[in-house]
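Subject: Sanity check before I submit

Could someone independently write out the structure tokens for this chain? I want to compare against mine line by line before I put it in a report. The sequence has 166 residues.
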Amino acid sequence: MLLVESGSRGVFDRLIPRLYEAHGDEMELDLVTCFAGTPAGFRGRVYRVQDYSGGAARRSLYAELAARQYLVTGILCSNEPIMTRWKWVLAARLRSKVFVINENADFLWLDWGHTYHIARLVRVRLGLTGASVIPVVARMLFWPVTLGYLLLFAAVVHTKRRIRTL
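---
Independent answer below. Compare away.
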């Protein structure tokens, strides 16, 4: 099993003992992380993304992880912008079943059977639940108007500046 630690270390400190308890001590866990050290109770390989900077190094990491043929990949989605590109590239490139781990160390499978729960998670992350829906939708609707106003303002200012210099 491969875990992608793209969020707070505390989540994995709670998750890893639960995984060993559920699947036994013979379970092999590997970890892709950007942090120093390892989570509490972790026994396995650690791949640090800092060691793979540059296109060729990243491709070698992808190839090495693909060669390991993981059956399952766990990706931490805890509403923190940590390793965002890494986690989604790994989810797309590895031929394994993916499960999403939230900030409470709960998880759900990333498949068509769980689209309702995934959509709900996305709505919560985007602020499209409860009373916060109205301001978010209003901002989305007024964004083109705001952009148009700013572009028009910039055009007028630059035109006036051009006329003054002539």
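---
OP: Matches mine. For the report I'm noting this point. The longest helix spans residues 133-165.
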